[in-house]
Amino acid sequence: MTRYADIPKPIRSGMVVVDPDRGTPQRIIVLQFNPDTLERSIAPQSAGDGGDAAGSGAGNGDRNEALRLKGPAQETWKFTAEIDATDQLEIAAPDGIHPQLATLEMLVQPTTAQLRAASRLSQKGTIEISPIEMPLTLFTWGSKRVMPVRLTELSVNESAFDVNLNPIRASLSIGMKILTVSDLPAGHRGADLYMAHLAQKERLAAAARGGSLGALGLGGTDLVTGRG
Predict the structure, then answer these.
(1) Lowest mean pLDDT: which of 46-60, 66-80, 95-109, 123-137?
(2) In a domain, 2, yes or no
(3) What is the residue range of 141's domain?
(4) Distance (Å, rounded) from C-alpha 19 to C-alpha 215?
(5) Fewest CB atoms within 10 Å of the CB: 74, 108, 192, 216?
(6) Is 220 inside any structural domain?
(7) Predicted model pTM
């Protein structure tokens, strides 16, 4: 009898809702299928981007700030997630994939308890009511990418339904902003998690093999003299 080597179980991507005070997971969302593609956009926060280079004073200021950074780069992610109840018959009844969709939608919604609390404060004559703070959400893509995020886009395309009109198949376009130390207050658990994420990038960059000037068609003196 032919025996095959054990095939490792694939790791799923997903999200973890974390209590920002205790650091304990409140909810774990495992994506049913890993997205086929990820679109990432990274925009540096350059100190010299805000000035008008045409003006004499502003131009000098821009040149002095050209290589300076104001903070971490702003990074956004976009991907498409698929949910299909026909692949998991136990979730096809009685609600279809309503629970899975609702779980994701609640990442961008305040709870009824939070809304009622805000309403009570308003009825008591409170002049200024602080915006409702949402739970800390982490996005995970393997052990090397665990980062605090804020959902910026959630578009749902429901494409199949059961006899009770419960959705049983849907495609979700999800957009996220990576939260950095520039977005979170000092001491916030999310800021610490971002620093750990950035440190992981530094370790991976240090492990990359360096190239040579010869591969670029340059000699050792070309960078010093500025001549090719």
Answers:
(1) 46-60
(2) no
(3) 14-49+62-202
(4) 50
(5) 216
(6) no
(7) 0.81
